[in-house]
Write a structure and sequence with these properties.
- It is a single-pass membrane protein.
- The protein has 313 residues and is an alpha/beta fold.
- The protein is 31% helix and 21% strand.
- The chain folds into two domains: 1-41, no CATH class; 42-310, Alpha-Beta Complex (Spore Coat Polysaccharide Biosynthesis Protein SpsA, Chain A).
Length: 313
């Protein structure tokens, strides 16, 4: 297959099998081979990039939340959002049309189970030719610049700290239900103002913002596989090769993760299943993540602009 082989071509081998367990075994065997071939793939040098900041997410029935999410990331300076719709039934597409028409959103339908990594790898292929940085996030994750720094400036500082840095791993900060039992019309970022303490173990999990040209592919929703010689770092400038790292309360960026929302919203989320497997979340996950020890209204600085752009209060 040679150097021209792409990571996605190896992912596609797994789709020949409908049994997810066997499919994942096939991918575990074949994916390293795909990465090896990509280690020497061209690095897309001398390409004029259209965007500084892009993001990718896969959604299923996120119609109630997607407008706030897009407007939030747009306000942060994101210029392109690759959205993969995994069999939504809530007419979310209608809420995306205006963003698609102006070129902010690239919309792709992606049917079937456990398609999260497929979506990420497809977006990665596009971003290699279009974007300086790609954030790999979910619809309940809001990248938060703690010190109100320009995100590109922060990323440049980390990415340019060494020639081979290919990604920055940003920690979660878990927000709980704030005592809500049911969904309200309020913005997610303004409704939930209670979070976990920094030392909560789930906050060690990370999501990745990467230079797409230094990435071979994605095998894990939290971290990526880099071309030979490249690697990710955390906010301490330490190398990271796992999906978690020590939380840094002084980090310039974090991801506010609204994992639970209200209890009834979590029940609906649970019914959708997980994006990268056939598993259904246990209600114990709600209890584990419903952490409300610390009052945190730092997202209030975005309230006015989000209320104006979304029409929500």
């Amino acid at each position: 297959m040679g150097k021209a082989a792409t990571f996605s071509s190896y992912i596609s081998f797994g789709r020949i099998c409908s049994n997810l367990r066997i499919r994942k075994t096939i991918l575990m065997i074949l994916s390293p081979l795909g990465i090896v071939l990509l280690l020497f793939n061209k690095k897309y040098k001398n390409i004029k990039l259209k965007y500084n900041l892009s993001a990718v997410l896969i959604i299923k029935n996120e119609g109630d939340y997607i407008k706030e999410w897009i407007e939030y990331y747009k306000n942060l300076g994101f210029e392109k959002i690759y959205i993969y719709d995994n069999d939504s039934t809530d007419n979310v597409y209608k809420k995306l049309i205006k963003y698609i028409d102006v070129g902010l959103v690239s919309y792709t339908k992606m049917s079937g189970h456990a398609r999260q990594l497929d979506a990420y790898n497809d977006a990665l292929k596009k971003a290699k030719r279009e974007s300086k940085y790609l954030a790999i996030v979910d619809a309940d994750e809001f990248l938060f610049p703690v010190k109100d720094d320009d995100i590109c400036t922060v990323l440049d500082r980390y990415m340019q700290s060494a020639n081979n840095v290919g990604g920055l791993c940003v920690n979660w900060l878990i927000f709980g239900s704030s005592g809500y039992m049911n969904q309200t019309s309020e913005l997610v970022t303004q409704r939930f103002k209670h979070r976990s303490k920094y030392d909560f173990n789930k906050n060690q999990h990370v999501k990745t913002i990467c230079d797409p040209r230094k990435v071979a592919g994605v095998l894990n929703p939290h971290i990526v596989e880099y071309i030979i010689g490249c690697y990710a770092i955390n906010s301490f400038y330490q190398k990271v090769d796992r999906p978690f790292t020590k939380y840094n309360s002084n980090a310039p960026l974090r991801i506010n993760h609204y994992f639970t929302k209200s209890k009834n919203e979590f029940v609906r989320k649970r019914a959708r299943g997980e994006a990268d497997s056939l598993n259904v979340r246990n209600m114990k996950d709600f209890d584990i993540h419903d952490r409300n020890e610390v009052f945190d209204d730092s997202m209030k600085r975005y309230r006015n602009v989000l209320e104006k752009t979304t029409g929500q209060k």
